[in-house]
Design brief:
heterotrimer; A mainly alpha (300); B mainly alpha (306); C alpha+beta (522); B: 306 residues; mainly alpha; 78% helix; flat; C: 33% helix
């Protein structure tokens, strides 16, 4: 499922292209579409208890598969219709934005914090530390993320926390690779050498000099990967290892609704639309950030 | 150069060794396969018998040692579920996975080329944004949903293409497209940024000055140069496609490695879990290694960076 | 650009090189199934669910008709009789039957097969009781076999018939002894109407017809292929395109397929879907009879049948009430046995039992083969229980993990569900025998000395009337003690191609008689 190459070894160490004024004014224009979609869903997530018209877990078998309101059998009580247990889809999507966005953001934050730490330490120290850390990174990267999540799910049972951990445990390696590559380049630069000569401690150099210079890259990666994590979670739901019901997560909603694509299309369509919009928005925002902040990063 | 290759080779082997321990432990953490093999009425004695028969009663260290020493000779043991040699199971599935990945790769290249070039040439315009959206769309939908909708519409309703299973050319189209579209975005980004860089270079400027037709500048001179990173990343993408097609394989009933891994995990089939993970990791390692060597060959500076 | 075209061309060539073409003629039958079980082609290792394809490759010692009656025409035994003390069962074998490798089937093969079925390596479902019962197997003539038992019994013919599991499948002694167990499992040889051609695990199993078979004549199909297609949408699309002839489908999609005029064959009451709890400890709520009754009264069975199972299910009221056995033992579900939907009384019962404010109840939700509605079902039942004040907690696990914690008795009192395959009285007895409490076994769900005593007597009882009384009493007690929450009988739909013709999938567990469909004798 991964769209990102895990073995980004090459690009990370590609010599940076000479900076040129390539990014025209138009490229820098704020991605209004992406930002407004993300904003809307974040709002929905924060205000789920206010916005949601019904209890997302309240089932009513007699009302199962009520179509959306514009269908002649639809009702205003369930604007987007109901699922196979008669739960209100709109409410589930609103609450689902809280679950899915939290899962996406939390996973990426965990992974990036750990991965960046490893990358900074490895890149700064070099030598044996670097070699050891990078071999662990390589091993991690070659473990397919979905397989690990499946193993965790059958071992300790699928849950929100386990899904976040399973994805983060694999994802950090990419951050470690990319950040290490950047640190190696930075270490060649004069200001680091000067800081060393001035007697700054390793921790100080890493935190005050190296880390701030990798922030742009981190931001781009984080943004691009929130969407990726949401998609991976959905795939895990399909395989029965995602965030489990009755918790409303978009992935499991689509997975549950997939058998009714013909008989009750709305059950999987609306959560699918929600995922599409959010992931698209994060990807477009990430692309824009990269163009703006760090045009040298060609592949993240 | 030889030293560089050797060093990278050793690094890959070390990573694989680490992975072998991890997957050995993780596989055993999933539970007891005997609960699935033995009938409900089995007694404690039946369990003890079966455990001895399958070699699961030995200490973990011993089991690991025999797993590694046999794996080095290419013997991954016998599947606990299917009672067949694991090597045979892998040999049946791997070619199917590789073929599907190759097809998906072609699909994504065919989509990424025009999109990437157009986006670069028309940078910042509506065309650029439209191309980006088309590419990113494939990455923004869960593949299983795309697959099911395709099957329902293209195979079930229109009946244009087979719905699942492996067969002739037509059976590759739907799974290949589903999988391929998913990675278009990454490849298109590469191509776009590569093109932007090249279009701005002295080399292209020179071509323009010399009066070469613009379309030729773009599609021949510039693209040729923007291709190199794409080609190297293509290798990596390929390995991703092989390792992570579980979902697509499930929906399309495609007998590949991913599906094998899924079945192995759900039946706690330790030898198969170990073999699949290590095989895929080895493929990734081989591809990365060759790409790195290729790069080091092209650009000697890399040898010093690493 | 040329480079790019070159890369794509090479990749495409690689992708398509050596891919086999899919050819399907009219004489080939393809069956798409959502699950294949273990895919082991050795009857003593496979478990029952492999019967779907294995019963085409092997003959049983005792045959059955598609509706589960023992038959002298469809098994290797043309007749069988007990001695007057019911300790010696003599089977007379059909003459001239050959294995696919040309060897003749003799009583030695039967003896070998039965010993193998109850041997140490065997993991079949019902080897246990046979192992306990068998004293000796004699082969006085190539066409005669005598099974000597330690106790008088009536169960032998059914246990070795096609109506149960795989113990009665007859295997070639010489072949297995020559090639070994492992080679046999990879290239099985039987005497059934179809012989093994190839197996790609996780993909398909292909069989080819023999020229002429004593049971079905010249088979109507040259090949039968079983395809593993886990995803429902894909199975249906394959059916629409004519790539498969039979597919198991979910109840939810029956209406849609019927609208398109695909014949749907139902296996009525194929399974009883039951909520049950792992043997509770003392002091746990489900140890209290009133609580068990309350949990039963809280469920609206009709609503579950109509909504979750799209009307292709009927309410069930007797725990483990395998209705195909009712006819054999003369059992009838009386109207007072039927649980009404009565949440008010359920609440009162809970209050009487001292749980007025409910209690936490762990409900496991997992996917079972053949039950796509499983998780929705678990969620729905948990919802009903919530309405009477119980606090159900849905715990998603995969089934093997649940089964482990159940066998390890790690989750006493926790609730799970199971679609127990329906079967005749001996099958039912065999199942009850497994479920009954015993220290040496791990699968118990009922701990009731009275029931254990009755079950103990059945195996050694040789008077059919008395067996009937015992079995009826077992059922009556299971119901009156509320040992479980039986919810519905499931009717399982199999969609067929429009060209398939008449087919009776029968009612024998884990079998749907593709060989009858292939018969030219009908």
């Amino acid at each position: 499922m991964s769209a990102e190459p895990t073995g980004g070894a090459v690009a990370d160490s590609l010599p940076a292209a000479p900076a040129r004024a390539r990014t025209g004014a138009r490229g820098r224009r704020l991605p209004v579409f992406a930002l407004s979609i993300i904003g809307a869903f974040v709002l929905a997530a924060l205000l789920a208890n206010v916005l949601s018209p019904a209890d997302p877990e309240e089932q009513s078998l007699r009302q199962r598969f009520t179509p959306p309101v514009w269908d002649e059998r639809g009702t205003w009580k369930h604007v987007l219709g109901t699922d196979r247990l008669g739960r209100d889809l709109l409410s589930r999507i609103i609450w689902g934005s809280r679950v899915s966005l939290t899962a996406g953001v939390l996973t990426v934050l965990l992974a990036s914090a750990f991965g960046a730490g490893v990358g900074l330490v490895a890149g700064y120290h070099g030598g044996r530390v670097d070699a050891a850390l990078m071999r662990i990174t390589d091993a991690t990267m070659s473990f397919p993320v979905i397989l690990l999540a499946l193993i965790l799910a059958v071992t300790v049972g699928p849950s929100f926390v386990n899904v976040v951990i399973a994805i983060a445990v694999i994802l950090w390696a990419r951050y470690a690779r990319v950040i290490r590559g950047q640190v190696l380049t930075l270490m060649e630069l004069d200001f680091i050498t000067q800081a060393r000569i001035a007697g700054a401690s390793a921790a100080r150099i890493i935190l005050r000099h190296l880390f701030p210079n990798t922030l742009n890259t981190l931001m781009v990666l984080v943004t691009l990967q929130v969407g990726y994590v949401i998609i991976v979670e959905a795939s895990l739901s399909f395989l029965g290892a995602g965030i489990p019901p009755p918790t409303p997560a978009w992935g499991s909603m689509i997975a549950e609704g997939r058998d009714f694509v013909t008989s009750a299309w709305w059950v999987s369509f609306f959560p699918g639309l929600a995922i599409l919009l959010v992931v698209l928005a994060f990807n477009l925002l990430g692309d824009w950030l990269r163009d703006t902040l760090d045009p040298k990063l060609r592949q993240l | 150069m030889a030293r560089f290759v050797l060093a990278r080779l050793v690094q890959s082997l070390v990573a694989l060794a680490i992975l072998s321990v991890v997957v050995f432990v993780l596989a055993r953490a999933t539970g007891d396969p005997l609960h699935l093999i033995l009938p409900m009425s089995a007694s404690e004695e039946d369990y003890a018998n079966a455990r001895r028969y399958l070699g699961l009663d030995r200490p973990y260290v011993e089991q690991y040692a025999s797993f590694v020493s046999r794996a080095l000779t290419g013997d991954f043991g016998t599947s606990l579920r299917a009672r067949r040699p694991v090597g045979e199971l892998i040999a049946q599935r791997l070619p199917n996975s590789l073929r599907l990945a190759a097809f998906a790769m072609s699909v994504s290249l065919l989509l990424a080329f025009p999109l990437g070039v157009l986006a670069a040439v028309w940078k910042g315009t509506g065309i650029d944004r439209a191309a980006q959206v088309i590419a990113v769309l494939g990455q923004s939908l869960p593949t299983f949903w795309v697959a099911i909708v395709l099957i329902e519409v293209v195979a079930g309703r229109l009946q244009w293409l087979p719905a699942g299973g492996i067969g002739g050319f037509t059976s590759y189209v739907l799974p290949g497209f589903t999988l391929g579209w998913f990675v278009v975005a990454g490849m298109m980004r590469l191509l776009r940024s590569g093109m932007l860089e090249v279009l701005d270079s002295e080399y292209v400027k020179l071509a323009r000055v010399k009066g070469v037709v613009e379309s030729r500048v773009v599609w021949v001179h510039a693209l040729k140069n923007a291709l190199i990173p794409v080609v190297t990343f293509a290798g990596i993408y390929f390995s991703i496609l092989v390792t992570t097609a579980i979902v697509v394989e499930t929906v399309f009933a495609w007998p590949g490695l991913g599906r094998l891994a899924y079945e192995a995990i759900s039946s706690r089939d330790f030898p198969v879990i170990q073999a699949v993970v290590l095989t895929t990791a080895a493929i990734v390692a081989v591809i990365n290694l060759s790409v790195d060597c290729l790069y080091a060959f092209i650009d000697p500076r890399i040898r010093y960076v690493r | 650009m040329r480079l790019a075209i070159g890369i794509v061309a090479v990749l495409l060539a690689f992708a398509l090189g050596a891919s086999p073409a899919a050819a399907q003629g009219k004489s080939d039958l393809t069956v798409a199934l959502s699950s294949f079980s273990t895919e082991v082609l050795d009857p003593v290792l496979g478990g029952h669910v492999v019967k779907y394809y294995m019963s085409l490759m092997f003959d049983y010692l005792v045959g059955v008709t598609p509706d589960g009656q023992l038959s002298r025409d469809t098994g290797l035994a043309t007749r069988w009789e007990p001695s007057s003390d019911h300790r010696r069962w003599t089977f007379y074998l059909r003459k001239g039957v050959k294995f696919h490798n040309g060897d003749e089937v003799t009583s030695e093969d039967v003896k070998f097969s039965l010993q193998r079925a109850i041997g140490k390596r065997s993991t079949t479902g019902y080897a246990g009781p046979l192992r306990a019962l068998f004293a000796d197997i004699e082969t006085p003539a190539p066409d005669r076999l005598v099974i000597v038992t330690k106790d008088p019994t009536l169960i032998i013919p059914t246990y070795l018939s096609r109506s149960l599991s795989t113990e009665g499948m007859i295997l070639p002694k010489k072949y297995i002894e020559a090639v070994g167990d492992d080679a046999f499992a990879q290239k099985p040889v039987g005497s059934g109407p179809f012989r093994f051609v190839e197996q790609v695990t996780g993909s398909h199993i292909k069989l080819a017809a023999v020229d002429n078979h004593w049971r079905i004549g010249v088979p109507r199909f040259k090949t039968v292929t079983f395809k593993l297609v886990p995803e429902e949408t894909t199975r249906i699309a394959l059916l629409r395109r004519g790539e498969v002839d039979i597919a198991d489908v979910s109840r939810e999609r029956v209406k849609e397929l019927e609208r398109e005029a695909f014949p749907i064959h139902f296996r009525r009451e194929e399974a009883i879907l039951t909520m049950w709890w792992v043997l509770p400890r003392d002091g746990q709520p489900t140890k209290d009879k009133r609580v068990r009754e309350a949990l039963n009264l809280a469920v609206d069975r009709n609503e579950v049948a109509q909504s979750i199972f799209a009307g292709h299910a009927d309410p069930a009221y007797v725990p483990l009430g395998l209705s195909w056995s009712y006819r054999d033992i003369g059992f009838k579900v009386s109207s007072e046995m039927q649980y009404p939907y009565d949440p008010a009384r359920a609440k009162k019962l809970l209050a009487d039992a001292g749980f007025a404010s409910g209690f936490p109840l762990t409900v496991h939700a997992y996917q079972l083969p053949g039950l796509p509605e499983g998780k929705a079902f678990a969620e729905a039942i948990a919802g009903y229980w919530q309405k009477i004040g119980v606090q159900p907690k849905l715990v998603p696990v995969d089934y093997p993990a649940f089964r482990k914690s159940w066998f390890d008795r790690a989750t006493p009192g926790a609730v799970g569900y199971y679609n127990v395959a329906n079967r005749d009285w001996i099958g039912t007895y065999a199942l009850l025998e497994k479920q009954a409490y015993s220290k040496s076994k791990v699968s118990d769900t009922v701990n009731d000395p009275e029931i254990d005593g009755m079950i103990e007597q059945v195996m050694r009882q040789t008077d059919k009337e008395k067996i009937g009384v015992l079995m009826r009493n077992v059922y009556t007690r299971l119901r009156s003690e509320h040992y479980g929450v039986p919810v519905v009988y499931l009717h399982s739909p199999y969609a067929a191609a429009k060209t398939l013709g008449k087919w009776n999938p029968g009612n024998v567990m884990y079998d749907f008689f593709i060989d009858e469909l292939a018969s030219s004798k009908r």
